[in-house]
Write a structure and sequence with these properties.
Elements (H helix, E strand, L loop, with lengths): L1 H13 L2 E8 L11 E3 L3 E2 L6 H16 L4 E2 L1 H8 L9 H8 L3 E12 L7 E11 L4 E11 L9 H20 L15
Parallel strand pairs: 2-4, 2-5, 3-5
Antiparallel strand pairs: 1-7, 5-6, 6-7
Helix pairs in contact: 2-5
Length: 189
């Protein structure tokens, strides 16, 4: 019994709490994505910049790891700047940015957990929207808390890892269009 408890304790120390879920909501939706804009995410966390940080990181991962036509986050912000403080629908944003596809989402958690270890935690939901049909064609959500004793102590590193996993999941769905760069997606520690 003591060995079993020791084993369970060791496993819990070396693994983090994680939850990732991905789904493709309709069939044949990754044809003709056109220009894709990753717009700033809604922020429901206590960090005032979490929505921008996570959406920029996701856009970066998409630009680095795919051949999809991703509009730069800088350009997206510049085009949306005149509408700051106004509530815009995804379709309205797409018309302003002139993109056929919008990636948007929410950040539900972006913080260091309180306590002795101050481990990072992130939670997000991501949606890919076909503007012409106004339908969500792909979605993902993930939550990760780095609880292991050898894990990263950086919220930025954890954000990068989770965005990379989201992009990695998206790749098989777009690969038939030859839009993906060949790359090894193993997370670097």
């Amino acid at each position: 019994m003591f060995k079993l408890l020791t084993y369970i304790l060791a496993i819990s120390l070396f693994t983090g709490c994680t939850s990732n879920k991905y789904s493709q909501l309709t069939q044949n939706t990754f044809d003709n994505l056109g220009q894709i804009a990753v717009v700033p995410f809604e922020n429901y966390s206590n960090n005032p910049n979490a929505g921008l940080i996570v959406s920029d990181q996701l856009a970066s991962e998409l630009m680095i790891n795919t051949n999809l036509n991703i509009l730069s986050p800088e350009k997206v912000r510049l085009l949306l700047a005149p509408f700051a403080g106004k509530i815009l629908t995804a379709k309205k944003m797409a018309n302003i940015i002139k993109s056929q596809t919008i990636i948007t989402g929410t950040v539900t958690e972006y913080r260091y957990k309180t306590g002795v270890s101050q481990k990072p935690a992130i939670g997000m939901t991501v949606y890919m929207l076909n503007v012409a049909t106004n339908k969500i064609i792909w979605s993902a959500n993930c939550a990760k808390s780095n609880n292991n004793i050898f894990g990263s102590n950086s919220l930025g590193h954890l954000t990068q890892q989770q965005c990379a996993k989201i992009v990695q999941n998206l790749i098989p769905k777009t690969n038939k269009n030859n839009q993906i760069k060949k790359r090894n997606f193993k997370n670097k520690k």
